[in-house]
Amino acid sequence: SQQGEEDPQALSIQEGENATMNCSYKTSINNLQWYRQNSGRGLVHLILIRSNEREKHSGRLRVTLDTSKKSSSLLITASRAADTASYFCAPNTDKLIFGTGTRLQVFP
Amino acid sequence: DAGVIQSPRHEVTEMGQEVTLRCKPISGHNSLFWYRQTMMRGLELLIYFNNNVPIDDSGMPEDRFSAKMPNASFSTLKIQPSEPRDSAVYFCASSYSLGTTDTQYFGPGTRLTVL
Prior knowledge:
heterodimer, B: 54% strand
């Protein structure tokens, strides 16, 4: 399975700190996507990085992709309490396969 | 745009009953996906449609589950008969592109409880 596996499973930080979440997968991909899920809500797309890209930025988000290591990371800089959510990576070959997510808790 | 709309938001039913979940994708989107989320199994793709045609239903757990997309603006996921192990949150998502490589937009989900 090309399911993304996020690490760590849970992360607790203080507001203002940076949060880094990692994702590993097993097969070749077209792209890799990161999604956020607030408690009781649907998933919200954050960023898509293509297989020929190495780094991408969107606001306070920075995503890297290393296809040789089959890994990706999501960095949230200057975290806020509102960033508290679960974060999922989804490697994409012929379909998105979501991992179990990283639960991020940001304390004010 | 209203986003992906799902109904009902919550459904409580008894074992053996038929359950129908509904989804209205974003207008103009060409692909529609049904997912199921549980604590044990995470988020699983059940089935997806391109231009109203089912493309991959390999994630549908068993014959008790069926999905239809009679037109571009409506899809249903039916469970008959329902069982307690079907309790989960069911999400519908849509995307503009055909296939699965594009950004997907998720609805708010239907929380199903089967007693």
